[in-house]
Amino acid sequence: MRRLWILLTFVVFALLLGAPVVRIAMGAWDQGWSGFAGGLTRPEALHALWMTTLIVIAVTVINTFFGVMLSLYLVRAAWLGPKLKKLMNSIVDLPFAVSPVIGGLMIVLILGPETALGGLLGSAGIKIVYALPGMMIATLFVTFPLVIREVMPVLQEIGNQQEEAASTLGAYGWTTFWRVTWPSIRWSVVYGVVLTVARALGEFGAVLVVSGNILFKTQTATTLVYQDVENFNLTSANSVALVLAAGSVALLLLMEWAKSRQGHH
Amino acid sequence: MHVEVRGLNKRFGEFQAVKDVDFSIAKGQLIGLLGPSGGGKTSILRMLAGLETPDAGDILFHGRRVNELPPQERGIGFVFQNYALFKHMTVEGNIAFGLEVKKWSKPRIKERVAELVELTGLSGFEKRYPHQLSGGQRQRVAFARALAPEPQLLLLDEPFAAIDAKIRQELRSWLREMIDRLGITSIFVTHDQDEAIEVADEIMIINKGNLEQKGTPWEIYKNPQTPFVAGFIGESTIVENIASIRGFEDAASWPGTKALIRPEYVEIGKPSEFRLLSATETGKVRHLHFRGSEWLVEVEVGSSKLVTYRSLEKEVLHPGDPVQVLVHRAYLFNDSDSWIMENKLKEDPMPVHI
Question: Is ipTM over 0.90?
C-alpha cells in the first residue's frame, strides 16, 4: 500500500512537473539547433524578450525599494495607528486574492485612453495603457506582496530593540538601517527579489489585458508564446518557452540558496 | 550627570503608565527603580533615554531641558533587558559601534575597545558573536557597548533578569564595583527588592505609575511612607485587629486602622528568654518552616496570626506549643495616614538601677 502511494506521488510529480519541461525542450529541438535559434532570433522574439527584460528590471527595482520601505512602516512606524496598519496589511495581500486578469482590467478602467485620467495623460503625450508603463504597473500590481510578505515577518521577529540600542549609541535612521536592520533582513529581501523576478518573468494575464499584445510594441515573451501557439508556430513557441523555463529553474536554484542563508547572518 | 524630572506623565491608550512623577538624582549615584511588573518603571527609564515621549512634564539633565532631544543626543548609555546586542557583529564590533557612529579616529576606537574589553573581563572573546557567548558575557558586552561612548548617564533595564540566580549575585557586585570605579550616574530598573537593596544608593519605589517613596534602602525599610512600600519591602503580615495585641491597645483610638508587622519585629520564646515578661503575651505555635539557616515560625495570638524567625541555636519549638510573643513595633495605617508605633510596654514600668 505504502509503495503504491509512493509510486502515485512520483507519477503525479512526473506528469505535472517533469513532462511539460521535457516536452517543451523536445519541442524546441524538433527542428534541431536551427529551429531553436530561428525561433529565438526572430525580430519579434528579440523584441518580446527585450520588453520582458525591461519590465523585470523596472518592477524588481521599484518593488524591492518600496517593498522594504512599506514593510518597515507597517512593522515599525508608531505614527500609523494599529487599526490603519492592520487594514493596510490586509490590502497588501489583495493581488494574491484577485485574478491578475482582473488586476489588469482595473488598470485599464482607471488609466485607459477613454478614462478621464488616461485622457489627460494621453493629451500630455504620456501613454500608459497599451504601452510599456501600463505593463510595468500591471506587473507591479501582481508582484507587490512578494517582498513585503518575506520581509515583514523577519522584522517582526527581530523586534526593534537592536535599532533602539543603535539610537542610544548615537546612530540615526540611515546608519541604523544599513548597519543594524539590513544585515538581519538581507536574505529575506533576496528571497523576495527572486520571487518577484520569477513572477515578473512569467506574468501573463494582467500584462495581456493591459498591453493589447501589439506586435513589436507591447508584446512580452509570455504573450509571444501565446500568440505563437495560436498560430501553430509550435517550434518557436517552445524555443521562447524553454528560455523562460530555464530562467525560472535558475531562479529556483538561487531561491533555495537564499532560503538556506535566511537563517544565517 | 544631575538628573531632574518634574511632573512626568505617560499614557498608553487608556492605561496610565506614569502619573505625576517628580524626582532628582545627584551626580554619581546609583538609583534603583523598584516596583511590581507593569508599574511604570521601564516607561520612566525609556522616557529618560528619549525612546518614549512623555505626555507631560520636564526631563532635565544638568538643569537643561532635554525633552526635545532625540536619544542620539542625550549622552546616555542604555542596557536593554535582553541586551539587544547586534547579533551579526562580533564583541569588538558591538563595542565599537557607538564610537564609529561618533566618528572617532581608528586608533582611538581601538584603544577604547581594548580598554573596555579589559574592564569587563572579556579578553579573548573579542572575535566571538553574541550567540557564542553565555548570558553573563552578553550582559557584559551590553554594558561595555553602552559605556564605550563615555555617556554621562547609564540606564539599565532589568539588567540581571535573564541571568540565572548564581551568576546574578556575582554580576551584581561586579556592576556595583564597576559603577563605583567609573563614577557614572546610573539608574536601573528591577522588580527584585534584594537586588535593589543590595546594589542601589537610593531606591525609588514605583507602583501603578506613582513614585511611592524615594530614599536609601535603610530609610525605606525603617520608615516606609505608604502602606504599599511597607508591604512591598521585606516580608510582612497584615493584622486587622492590632488593638488586641498587648502593648498596642492605644491603636483602638483610630478606628479602621490596620497594622503591618514584619517577622523581625516579633520575638518569641519560652518565658525565661524574656527580660520584660510583662510586655509579652501567650500565643500558640501553628507551623514551623525550615528556611535553611533559621526557622520561620507562624504563631497565633488571639485571633491574629504572626510570622517570625527563630534561630536554630535556640530550643526547638513544635506546632501546638505555647510560647511568649513580644511584638516590638508595628506599622499602622488607615485610609488617610500611616505611622510606626512602638510597643508601649517595652518601657520598663519599674526600672531598677543598680
Answer: no
Give CATH superfamily name and number for B237-347: Nucleic acid-binding proteins (2.40.50.140)
Q: Which of A161, A170, A175 sits opposite B84 (nearest CB)?
A: A161
Mutation test of the interface with chain A: which of B12, B42, B97, choosing the one with the most A Cβ atoms within 10 A?
Answer: B97
Contact A164 B72 (CB under 8 A): no
Which chain B residue has its CA at the smallest distance from A158's CA? B84
Place domain A34-263 in its CATH homologous superfamily. MetI-like (1.10.3720.10)
B-chain residue closest to A175, CA distance = B101
pLDDT digits (tens, 9 = 90+) for B23-61: 999 988 999 999 988 889 999 999 999 999 999 999 999
> Any chain B CB within 8 A of the CB of A167?
yes
pTM above 0.90, yes or no: no
HEC secondary structure over chain B: CCEEEEEEEEEECCEEEEEEEEEEECCCCEEEEECCCCCCHHHHHHHHHCCCCCCEEEEEECCEECCCCCHHHCCEEEECCCCCCCCCCCHHHHHHHHHHHCCCCHHHHHHHHHHHHHHCCCCCCCCCCHHHCCHHHHHHHHHHHHHCCCCCEEEEECCCCCCCHHHHHHHHHHHHHHHHHHCCEEEEEECCHHHHHHHCCEEEEEECCEEEEEECHHHHHHCCCCHHHHHHCCCCEEECCHHHCCCCHHHHHCCCCEEEECHHHEEEECHHHCCCHHHCEEEEEEEEEECCCEEEEEEEECCEEEEEEEECCCCCCCCCCEEEEEECEEEEECCCCEEEEECHHHCCCCCCCC
CATH class of B3-225: alpha beta
